[in-house]
Design a protein that fits this description.
By secondary structure, this protein is α+β, with helices and mostly antiparallel strands. The chain contains 8 helices and 8 strands. The longest helix is centred in the middle third of the chain and has 30 residues.
């Protein structure tokens, strides 16, 4: 069990508020029963107003809840779900990475697999071709917008109109370049095109000079659960190159669906 008061540190990146919230999470995780506000405040030496503020924030984010009768606080299972997703993503990489390396070598470009998390696309695996100076840069764990990315558009084809309105309300349709789709009407037209052709393109919509092509990864119910994409400079990722590689990338996406779409992405 941790002590009541932690020593101060001189690290410039130190954030006391974040530490206090994490302290409360760990304390509740180690407790065998729900705790009163006063119990938590007394344990850490915080005043009750400060403690309540942190508990309210944790409750709003879904990490903490209260018993309806006693109003005592307890930890929810959200952290377990996050841990499961993280473990699942690590497990997925064992299967996805050989495919991404193969794609990167054949295209000579960057490749990635991303999934939707909280109306954003999160990279769970990436690979880059060797001996290239100019490359698309992606990093595992980074979250990017849905409306301006190939993989994001694939996922949006499954959104209901209500879900799309919620995305626009909560996340907006931010303009990253002059090519970014920034209106609901234009986005609906784009999603209709994606559905019709079976793949999505980010044509300098996230970054000028970069083009991306993305194919869906399906689960056993036929639902898109991820996207696999190739990103590179427009001088190399020309329409002719993309056209010549469509069937190949489609086959890779089918293989990924067979290998990981059923077993590892239903979370």
């Amino acid at each position: 069990m941790r002590g009541k008061v932690k020593k101060e540190t001189d690290m410039t990146s130190y954030n006391q508020s974040s530490e206090k919230a994490l302290n409360i999470i760990e304390y509740l995780a180690e407790s065998k029963e729900p705790k009163r506000l006063m119990d938590i405040a007394e344990y850490f030496g915080y005043n009750t107003a400060t403690t309540l503020r942190f508990l309210n924030s944790l409750q709003k984010c879904g990490y903490v809840d209260q018993e309806s009768e006693t109003m005592r606080y307890f930890l929810t299972l959200k952290l377990c779900r996050i841990a499961h997703i993280h473990e699942n993503n690590i497990e997925i990489q064992k299967f996805t990475h050989p495919f991404l390396v193969q794609l990167s070598n054949d295209f000579g470009e960057s490749t990635c697999i991303s999934v939707e998390r909280n109306m954003m696309m999160v990279y769970i695996d990436v690979a880059s071709a060797a001996n290239r100076i100019l490359m698309g840069q992606q990093f595992v764990g980074n979250a990017v917008s849905m409306h301006s990315t190939g993989n994001g558009k694939l996922m949006l084809t499954q959104y209901t109109m209500e879900e799309l309105d919620m995305l626009i309300e909560k996340k907006g349709l931010h303009r990253y370049t002059e090519n970014t789709i920034c209106t609901k009407e234009d986005l609906l037209k784009e999603l209709a095109d994606v559905k019709a052709r079976g793949y999505a393109i980010d044509d300098e919509e996230s970054e000028i000079g970069m083009r991306c092509i993305a194919y869906p990864v399906y689960n056993d119910s036929g639902r898109i659960v991820a996207g696999v994409s190739v990103t590179g400079p427009t001088v190399r990722m020309t329409s002719e190159v993309i056209e010549s590689k469509l069937e190949y990338l489609k086959e890779i996406s089918k293989e990924l669906s067979n290998v990981i779409g059923i077993s590892y992405l239903n979370v």
